[in-house]
Amino acid sequence: MPNTDPPLDEPARVALVLERARRCATRVRVIAAATRDRAGERLTEIGELAEMGIVGTSDDGLSIASGRVAREVLAYLGPLGLPLIEHAEDASLAAGSVMRAGPIATRLGLAGWPPSAELAVVERDIALAEETSGWLHVTHISTAGSLEAIRRAKERGVHVTCDVTPHHLAMTDAWVAGDRRFAWEEPSGIGADPFGATLDQELAYDARCRVNPPLPSRSDALALLGGVADGVIDAIATDHAPHPVERKAVEFAAAAPGIIGLETALSLGLAAVAAGILGLARLLEVMGSGPAALIGEERALRVGAPADLVLFDPGARWRVEAGTLASSSSNTPLLGMELPGVVRLTVADGRITYREGVLEQS
Ligand SMILES: [Zn+2]
User: Fold this and answer.
1) How far apart are the CA of 361 and the centre of ligand 1, in A?
2) Which of 32, 64, 223, 359 makes the best surface tag, with the fewest CB within 10 Å?
3) Average pLDDT over residues 169-187
4) Measured between alpha carbons, how far is residue 65 from residues 102, 119, 358 in Å?
5) Please, are residues 70 and 95 in contact by the beta-carbon 8 Å criterion?
């Protein structure tokens, strides 16, 4: 994603990332900024960037505020076969909010983010994609309303696709109150507490639960799981957002939003499979071949083709600890929890890149 500092808004910066990516343990694809400085005004050199192999453009972290500019980006990218990857959030509706609006935000006394903040941009961009015959990809959708808008648009033939993160499928706004049950588990406190969540004194206001878009209501998380199962959601993507400890070890409202997800994504999906909420074949499709197909690539096990695969033991379990994560960051509310599914080996582009806890350097 291009929301680095400086942003990936120039061909030279994209070239640098592509060069460094050659030595990585995984295949890396670049999404360039849609506008210069991600300022939402002037388009980047989209033609030149497309020739370099970017897979889309996005001002992620922000929506393109101006409908006119978003329309221009869609019209420009469409003939190139590339999507505008939109972080859908109306800045005026989301201003000042730190968690999902609802009874739990009210109980915690935290400013709430209304689902309309996402839907307003999704509806606008669907209309623009329809008019321009462009391709809209909405990233990290988090509300049932967006899901339904995308479902209807797909039904009438608009070129729109979307992804959801593992944390918006598995975690809910009750996690901000300290509840650590997955969306598909019966929440605690229902019936006993008019707000629908029991405050856990030790875990409430955990800044590691602050993320943008915020963790959804339970009913929205269940709707999103349904959207993965029935195919309206095309991919599970982590929105992996590492932060140093000092940006999270602060009060909830002051914390940087973001959760790391690369190393826990498969396990959260397998937990949903174990709960009977998702089929294993659909999970693997939506995490592997599905996203690859979206960017025009094939992932298949075939004689003579370079292998891209993950070997994992679905029956083994592991505990998420800062020391067991390969990431330099550990900003995830899953720390201390035990999850199903242990990765034994990864192969990227025909190269073994990870084996039993060890990253293989190339
Ligand atoms: Zn985003």
Assistant:
1) 30
2) 359
3) 93
4) 25, 14, 43
5) no
Look up 239 and say whether it is catalytic.
yes
List, for residues 192-224, the tens digit of each pLDDT value. Answer: 565 666 788 889 999 999 999 999 999 999 999
Percent of all residues in the chain with a pLDDT value above 70, rounded to a whole number = 97
The answer to whether residue 259 is domain-embedded is yes
- Catalytic choice (220, 239, 308, 313): 239
- Ligand 1 centroid to 241 CA: how many Å? 10
Query: How far does the centroid of ligand 1 lie from the alpha carbon of residue 190, in Å?
Result: 31
Residue 10 falls inside a structural domain: no
* Spatial CA neighbour of 98 closest among 118, 114, 87, 120: 114
Q: Say how many residues make up the chain.
A: 362
How confident is the model over 240-265, as pLDDT tens digits?
Answer: 999 999 999 999 999 999 999 999 99
Ramachandran angles phi, psi of 116, nearest 5°: -65, -25
Count of the separate structural domains present in the chain: 1
Domain that holds residue 102: 88-305
d(CA 86, ligand 1 centre) in Å:
8
- Please state the separation of Cα 147 from the chain's center in Å: 14
Question: Using only C-alpha atoms, what is the Rg of the chain?
Answer: 20
Q: Does any domain span residue 118?
A: yes
What pLDDT score does 231 carry?
A: 97
CATH number at residue 151: 3.20.20.140
**CA atoms lying within 13 Å on the CB side of residue 17:** 22
